[in-house]
Amino acid sequence: MSRDFHWLPNIPNIRKMNAFKRDKKEDEDGSNQFQNLEKTTVLQEARTFNDTPVNPRKCAHILTKILYLLNQGEQLGTTEATETFFAMTKLFQSRDVVLRRLVYLGIKELSSIAEDVIIVTSSLTKDMTGKEDLYRAAAIRALCTITDGAMLAAIERYMKQAIVDRSAAVSSAALVSSLHLTTVSGDVARRWANEAQEALNSDNVMVQYHALGVLYQARKSDKHAVIKLVAKLMRSSPKSSYAACMLIRMACKLVEEVDEGSEFLEFIESCIRHKSEMVVYEAAHALVNLGRSGTREIASAVSVLQLFSGSPKPTLRFAAVRTLNKVAMSHPAAVIACNLDLENLITDSNRSIATLAITTLLKTGAESSVDRLMKQIATFVSEISDEFKVVVVQAIRALCQKFPRKHAVLMNFLAAMLRDEGGLEYKAAIVDTIIAVMEGNVEAKEAGLAHLCEFIEDCEHTSLAVRILHLLGQEGPTSKQPSRYIRFIYNRVILESASVRAAAVTALAHFAAACPALLPNILVLLSRCQLDFDDEVRDRATYYCTILQQNADPAILPLVQPPQLSIPSLERALRNYVRSPMDEEFDISQIPPAQAIEEPAQEVLATVKPQQPRLTREENFMEKLLQVPELSAIIHDSILFKSSTVFELTESETEYNVKCIKHCFSDYLILQFDCLNTLSDQFLEDVRVTVDNQDIYTIVCEVPCVRLPYNELGSTYTVLKFPEDIQSTIITLPTTLRFIAHDCDPSTGIPDAEQGYGDEYTLEDLEITVRDQVRGTGSRNVDFSSSWENAATRGFVTTEQIFGLGANVTTLEEAIQSLVMFLGLEPVERSDRIKSGARQHTLLLTGVFRGGKEVLARAKLVLTNHVTMQFTVRSQDLEVAELMISSVG
Amino acid sequence: MFQSNTKDSKPYEPTLYTIKGISILDNDGNRILAKYYDKNIFPTSKEQKAFEKNLFNKTHRTNAEIIMLDGLTCVYKSNVDLFFYVMGSSHENELILMSVLNCLYESVSHILRKNVEKKAVLDSLDIVMLAVDEICDGGIILDADATSVVQRVALRTDDIPLGEQTVAQVLQSAKEQLKWSLLK
């Protein structure tokens, strides 16, 4: 009773008690003595370092605080860091081991922020060469973090001695540091290779491992030296497991690069019987990833992985099943033997292992087991992280491609996943998969669209809703019953945010443009949208209403679906046009299309890459070219039409590496030669690539590369003017690299003599092809048939010829691929995909020739024993059409 | 993470730079000690801490030992109120990472005389820092044998002046020293 009575005045007491509790709690985990450190206070305390004699315990504690703060991400200014650094150097007076070691840590942490850090060089050098082993190794590592190129020569002698030191710690520290120093001076490893070679024979396993790393670094550019190194070590397998793993990786690289690598492959396979699990797994993993592994190698890898997958250690199980998953992609049959083990892992408590097991089973399983596995997944899909859900979705996607008949089951499963909770990435992966299934399988289209419609009814991600609405606008009009989608789309107009409403309006307009039957009704809907309170939505509605009311003209479709042009190029072209007298009409066909976001075909990534800024490759190159004054004078008001892929003019391991990129403008061709000098004892001046123009092209100018030091990329340019006659632009030009060479000291790069000597080096021939001068229009959904039919009225000429394709083309896919590759035109209406088993096919291509000349082409292909093709080209320019025909022949 | 190498089936360039990061977190996911060795991943401490939070959230309830996160393979181990992590790139040999984690844990355990908990780590933070520095140098595994790591960080037995030590502490340190001299 009395308690009840007194409860009011007690409030302050309760508060006090709470405070007490909190105190106590802080006391418990407030064991963190570093918790409330203040940067300025700690730096003040650092003044204690200046006291003599040094109090080691006190100073060590303060130094620990500083290191703790730095480790917590506290930023020091340059002055603060420098002051602290100098105070710290006073601590060298103390002989306390722990304190000295902490000073080394401090030096390493501050070396990148503080100034004049080389002040401690002599102290560190003294420690490194002294007697105290506990100092020496750590001093070497600290010293190397403050060493720059100029200082390197001074400590070189000590480092070489340290590498071969009796103490393993010292030797390891020197070897590891020399690897870090390669960022300071590229060839440190090579200069110290002899010492590293000696260290390789050390009894200490870590020294052996580090020495191998340094030796590889030293020799990696010389393939024969690497072969020798690996071959020698293969015979006396290294004692260190780490070194063995490293050796396997080196052998792998050789197997890929050398033609006769069978002994290396045998070595990797023999490592499967190594006594260390780590090495066994490394070998199995290597065999799985090697392109050259045959069935036998894969089988032996799979058998150890199978063993590991039953291990009590989660890491080993994870590693095994993850690698099996990879095998299942390339050799599904090899994994079938493990199916029973994988089934056991489905219920693994580590969900990552379970997911990997299931997705592996999905890849190897038969069609009949799909239903059962899908049920299994459904039981735990809600428990796993989004990242793994994405993996499951991707497995389903692969499954749809493998078993097209199962699309109904899988589609339903995907739809169920769509309804579940999940982040944007996960939802986007599902939507992607549904879209991919629809594209690959016509039967699935209607069901897919229905699922997506249902999804946008309740979709919290604006970006996804916009994408789906766009897709509906593209695909809906050609479905069996377009009208049923209108309701879904119009619901968005009523319920959603402005950007979704705008997308919905555009989708409606697509329906109206493509299905005249729906036009009157949609016009009613659109006119309502004209009252929307968002500007963008209202503007779009007004725009579409106006266009659509002007009645059914086939020309309105491009207005409803504008081609995706590259905005920066369009801006530049319009600016140039406004500056010009504007006598001619603005030619929009000059503008390159925006870069299509290419979907990586096979890439199965769980993390989504950040979106790259949408500058096309051409625009990036244009920026670079405009920075060269000589080039800028020629091309400043034109638009880069197309940049070719990189063309190698040398083998990859020659003394000089030259690669060429051809930049095509409407009248000019700029050849960009990227040169790399791989000789460390030479630097080159006045580097140019001379092109034998064979009196057809005119050489406008050459921009040489003034200096080309060892291992740096330099560019030289040659500007050619296209000949009038389009036929003769296709040509093979001999090229030569000319330069003035200076012999120099490989370590310093300083030339031996003032005068260099002229030299030249013959390169491979450069081909200029049709592909360099043609590009796609970027409008994938262009209505090919109407442009084809209307071509004659727009003054297009037609040429036609029938070809029998060569003996090396035996399938329609190959024919399509090589045709697209060769001409540089872009397939439209998805005509580059053929139905499996088809004997004939029509490929539709569009593109633009430099100078904005439109090209339409149709290739009718028939497969008998070989492929016969009827190839028809329509273009504004007869010469261009003829060029297309003649270059196919 | 399950990045298929089909596009560039080239094996990864052999290198000693194996470790991308090492961290020790407390049971609230706060950093006690962390080192990141690759400037290309998590360049700022803000990104590092965001990653650690995420990592902690994904790992503190299940003792599953290994997880893939943000394109990294992370192996981990926990004890009382501490979480130890070692991170490597997604194509790194998971067992190598595990061997480094084991070495880290055993070294710390040895330094703290089997008393692996937050308070003890903070009390000997200097020695633990030195141990981490001895295990991994700039991403290269320097030593993965706990006994040799512990030897190299110079266990401080004469921590406190003799007069200030309790009898029990003196006895303990004497025992330790005896044990070490026998082991040698």
UniProtKB/TrEMBL annotation, chain A:
Cellular component GO terms held in the UniProt record: COPI vesicle coat; endoplasmic reticulum; endoplasmic reticulum-Golgi intermediate compartment; Golgi membrane
Family statement: Belongs to the COPG family.
GO BP terms, alphabetized: endoplasmic reticulum to Golgi vesicle-mediated transport; intra-Golgi vesicle-mediated transport; intracellular protein transport; organelle transport along microtubule; protein secretion
Protein localization: Cytoplasm; Golgi apparatus membrane; Cytoplasmic vesicle, COPI-coated vesicle membrane
UniProtKB keywords: Cytoplasm, Cytoplasmic vesicle, ER-Golgi transport, Golgi apparatus, Membrane, Protein transport, Repeat, Transport
A Pfam family assignment: COP-gamma_platf
Function, as annotated: The coatomer is a cytosolic protein complex that binds to dilysine motifs and reversibly associates with Golgi non-clathrin-coated vesicles, which further mediate biosynthetic protein transport from the ER, via the Golgi up to the trans Golgi network. Coatomer complex is required for budding from Golgi membranes, and is essential for the retrograde Golgi-to-ER transport of dilysine-tagged proteins.
Residue ranges annotated for the Coatomer subunit gamma C-terminal domain, each copy included: 780-888
InterPro entries reported in the protein's UniProt record: ARM-like (IPR011989), ARM-type_fold (IPR016024), Clathrin/coatomer_adapt-like_N (IPR002553), Clathrin_app_Ig-like_sf (IPR013041), Coatomer/calthrin_app_sub_C (IPR009028), Coatomer_g_Cpla (IPR032154), Coatomer_gsu (IPR017106), Coatomer_gsu_app_Ig-like_dom (IPR013040)
Subunit structure as annotated in this protein's UniProt entry: Oligomeric complex that consists of at least the alpha, beta, beta', gamma, delta, epsilon and zeta subunits.
Recorded topology in the membrane: Peripheral membrane protein
Name recorded for this polypeptide: Coatomer subunit gamma
GO MF annotation: an example: structural molecule activity
Domain annotation Clathrin/coatomer adaptor adaptin-like N-terminal: ranges: 38-550
Domain Coatomer gamma subunit appendage Ig-like subdomain: 620-769
The organism's place on the tree of life at top rank: Eukaryota
UniProtKB/TrEMBL annotation, chain B:
Keyword list, A-Z: Cytoplasm, Cytoplasmic vesicle, ER-Golgi transport, Golgi apparatus, Membrane, Protein transport, Transport
GO cellular component, one term: Golgi membrane
Organism domain of life: Eukaryota
A Pfam family the protein falls into: Clat_adaptor_s
Presence of the UniProt keyword Membrane in the record: yes
Main location: cytoplasm
Domain AP complex mu/sigma subunit residue range list: 19-156
Record GO biological process: intra-Golgi vesicle-mediated transport; intracellular protein transport; retrograde vesicle-mediated transport, Golgi to endoplasmic reticulum
Subcellular location: Cytoplasm; Golgi apparatus membrane; Cytoplasmic vesicle, COPI-coated vesicle membrane
Mode of membrane association: Peripheral membrane protein
Function: The coatomer is a cytosolic protein complex that binds to dilysine motifs and reversibly associates with Golgi non-clathrin-coated vesicles, which further mediate biosynthetic protein transport from the ER, via the Golgi up to the trans Golgi network. Coatomer complex is required for budding from Golgi membranes, and is essential for the retrograde Golgi-to-ER transport of dilysine-tagged proteins. The zeta subunit may be involved in regulating the coat assembly and, hence, the rate of biosynthetic protein transport due to its association-dissociation properties with the coatomer complex.
Family the UniProt entry places it in: Belongs to the adaptor complexes small subunit family.
Quaternary context: Oligomeric complex that consists of at least the alpha, beta, beta', gamma, delta, epsilon and zeta subunits.
Protein name in UniProt: Coatomer subunit zeta
GN (gene name): LOC105368943
